[in-house]
Automatic annotation (TrEMBL):
<keyword id="KW-0175">Coiled coil</keyword>
<dbReference type="GO" id="GO:0046417">
    <property type="term" value="P:chorismate metabolic process"/>
</dbReference>
<keyword id="KW-0808">Transferase</keyword>
<dbReference type="GO" id="GO:0009073">
    <property type="term" value="P:aromatic amino acid family biosynthetic process"/>
</dbReference>
<dbReference type="GO" id="GO:0016832">
    <property type="term" value="F:aldehyde-lyase activity"/>
</dbReference>
<protein>
    <submittedName>
        <fullName>Phospho-2-dehydro-3-deoxyheptonate aldolase</fullName>
        <ecNumber>2.5.1.54</ecNumber>
    </submittedName>
</protein>
<dbReference type="GO" id="GO:0004106">
    <property type="term" value="F:chorismate mutase activity"/>
</dbReference>
<dbReference type="GO" id="GO:0003849">
    <property type="term" value="F:3-deoxy-7-phosphoheptulonate synthase activity"/>
</dbReference>
Length: 264
């Protein structure tokens, strides 16, 4: 069902009026984790000023260590919804438990399935059973074929509003947190008809690489770039090393516009 051979036309996903897959290239930005109403509001206002309506933020955080901040859960979803209602933003947030999918559709505009859950088939089926767009991230060690099969689970369950996200894979290289597989973008676009995003924050794990990798993603034809923004990354409860602060975010957008790759 996701194969380009069967469906030559691009899937265009309508995110409350922001189209994904129509040829325009978008930015999806926001904090790693929802920490407070003020934190999300500050970031969302900065995004809005630059014409960005796609707001990401994690309420359920799948952390490597059980002792790290696990997210605010439903309270985090409530904060995202409140900010989105106030500023007309589109909320993208990860859901980790199949049992939470039904509840989440009242709060989020896009259900994100994270890298660690790419092959959580019950979660994929649950997300496929609801009428809400899904953003599926590539697994940490998933081949492109496995990624496409995971996507097939969502669409086979009845949900056609699916987007894919390359977010780096595990290799022997340690200079970056993961290795951004940039060639996955044209491969996924050739093999499937789905919108393809590139997450430059989690793939690199390095603030200094966000801009060059975002340019590469736009140049190679990604439908959107995802990156994290926090009012004060030094005190962020997760991903402190790679989130941009608001001035850095503005510079990031300025430089993408100046490159001619991002049209705004
Ligand atoms: C995220 O986008 O918040 C996230 C945890 O990313 P990933 O699942 O790609 O690690
Ligand atoms: Mn993060």
């Amino acid at each position: 069902l996701v194969s380009r051979k069967k469906h030559p036309d691009n899937t265009v996903v309508d995110l409350k009026g922001v189209m994904m897959g129509d040829g325009a290239q978008r930015l999806v930005m926001g904090p790693c984790a929802v920490e407070s109403y003020e934190q999300v509001l500050t970031v969302a206002k900065a995004l809005k000023e630059r014409g960005i309506r796609l707001l990401r933020g994690g309420a359920f955080k799948p952390r490597t260590s059980p002792y790290d901040f696990q997210g605010l859960g439903v309270e985090g979803l409530e904060i995202l919804k409140r900010v989105a209602d106030e500023l007309d933003m589109v909320v993208i947030s990860e859901i980790v438990n199949p049992a939470d999918i039904e509840k989440a559709i009242d709060y989020v505009d896009v259900i994100q399935i994270g890298a660690r859950n790419m092959q959580n088939f019950e979660l994929l089926k649950a997300a496929g059973n609801v009428n809400k767009p899904v953003l599926l991230k590539r697994g940490l060690s998933a081949t492109i074929s496995e990624f496409i099969h995971a996507a097939e689970y969502v669409v086979a369950s009845g949900n056609n509003d699916l987007m894919l996200c390359e977010r780096g894979i595990r290799t022997y290289e340690t200079a970056t947190r993961n290795t951004l597989d940039i060639s996955a973008v044209p491969i996924l676009k050739q093999e499937t008809h789905l919108p393809v995003l590139v997450d430059v924050t989690h793939s690199t794990g390095r603030r200094d690489l966000l801009l060059p990798t975002a340019k590469a993603a736009l140049a190679i034809g990604a439908d959107a770039v995802m990156a994290e923004v926090h009012p004060d990354p030094a005190v962020a409860l997760s991903d402190s090393a790679q989130q941009m602060d608001i001035p850095q975010f503005n510079k990031f957008v300025d430089e993408l516009l100046a490159s001619g790759l991002y049209k705004g």
